[in-house]
Design brief:
The complex is a heterodimer. By secondary structure, chain A is α+β, with helices and mostly antiparallel strands. Chain A contains five helices and five strands. In chain A, 34% of the residues lie in helices and 29% in strands. Chain A starts with a helix and ends in a 10-residue tail after the last strand. Chain B has two domains: 44 residues, Arc Repressor Mutant, subunit A, CATH 1.10.10; 76 residues, Alpha-Beta Plaits, CATH 3.30.70.920. A four-stranded antiparallel beta sheet of chain B has the order 3-4-2-5. In chain B, β3 and β4 form a beta hairpin. In chain B, α1 crosses α2 and α2 packs across α3. The longest helix of chain B is centred in the C-terminal third of the chain and has 15 residues. Chain B is elongated. The chains are: A alpha+beta, B alpha+beta. At the A-B interface, α2, α3, β1, α4 and β3 of A face α1, α3, β1, α4 and β3 of B. β5 of chain A pairs antiparallel with β3 of chain B.
Chain lengths: 157, 147
């Protein structure tokens, strides 16, 4: 999708951290030529178009004891891939579900979260009983080396 | 962190209100005053519990590409691996995991060429083979939890 100048400006503003003000969008707008109502309208427009996926607070889960998570990869027959992906995606503790190719014959990649390891294992068992097959591999997350948000629009753009 | 903080986090980690007085909306949802909601969120940000408040952009929608890479790194080389891989701003996530391969990072870049460039540069500098696993379909990419 082609972005016009205003879209680029809006994305540049919202890809960072919202000002710590009581009326943060007024503050953001004051950094540009827009008024707050227009800025808000534009953000919602970009959200409707799917360019902005969501506007939210990103919480550091490890700081509030969100416990364990694992990347679980599944080997699913081609003719069952869509259905399986949809079933897994509908589960609360599964945050991501992607089809990928290149890791042996594992073709469905999920991220599963829980308060602890046992909790994650429970979700895996639930998924297995739901799907009726069990060729999968679990990659427990041991250490976070980097987690940032991408800056899509740079100053010079 | 108390119960009210948790309620606030649950609420704003799903969606932070995009309106002129967002803290009034947050306050109403947890039953406190607007200024108290503002102060609590500010504290959670200063304490680092909230990493950031803002938009998540769908890279695909603006023509960017992303991929997941897996690579096997010996334990005593992980620090060096981290410093090489993390030096690329296009690498947004990087984790050590159990199993083989044991290291996993994501690349988001302007186009496929730049993505390949980053992967081969990392591969060359570390002398390792990298598994490049771009998504052919995205079924779910969303994180919100009850806190």
């Amino acid at each position: 999708m082609k972005l016009d100048k205003t879209d680029q400006l809006i994305l540049k503003l919202v890809q960072g951290d919202l000002p710590m003000e009581e009326m943060p969008f007024d503050e953001l707008a004051s950094e540009t030529g827009l008024d707050a109502d227009t800025l808000i309208e534009k953000i919602l427009e970009l959200k409707d178009k799917g360019i902005i996926r969501g506007f939210k607070a990103v919480v550091r889960h490890y700081r509030i004891n969100m416990g364990a998570n694992a990347m679980v990869v599944w080997s699913v027959p081609d003719n069952r891939l869509s259905d399986t992906a949809k079933a897994l995606s509908s589960m609360d503790n599964i945050s991501h579900c992607y089809e990928r190719h290149g890791l042996d014959d594992y073709n469905l990649f999920t991220m599963i979260h829980g308060r602890n390891k046992k909790d994650v294992e429970k979700t895996i068992e639930k998924a297995i009983s739901l799907l009726g097959f069990k060729k999968y591999r679990v990659y427990w997350t041991k250490r976070e080396l980097k987690k940032t948000s991408m800056q899509y629009i740079k100053e010079e753009d | 962190m108390d119960k009210v903080d948790r309620k606030i986090l649950t609420f704003i980690s799903k969606a932070f209100p995009v309106e002129r007085r967002p803290y009034r909306k947050i306050a109403d949802s947890v039953g406190i005053g607007e200024y108290e909601a503002f102060k609590r969120v500010k504290r959670l940000r200063l304490e680092g519990i909230i990493r950031r408040i803002g938009a998540t952009i769908n890279p695909r929608k603006i023509g960017w590409v992303s991929t997941l890479c897996g690579v096997q790194i010996p334990e005593d080389m992980i620090d060096r691996y981290a410093s090489v891989v993390n030096s690329f701003p296009e690498v947004t996530h990087n984790y050590v995991r159990s199993g083989t391969p044991n290291c996993w990072f994501t690349v988001i870049s302007r186009d496929r060429r730049r993505c390949n460039e980053i992967i081969s540069e990392i591969s060359k500098r570390l002398g390792v083979k990298i598994l490049d696993l771009p998504a052919s379909r995205v079924f779910k990419t969303d994180v919100h939890f009850r806190l």
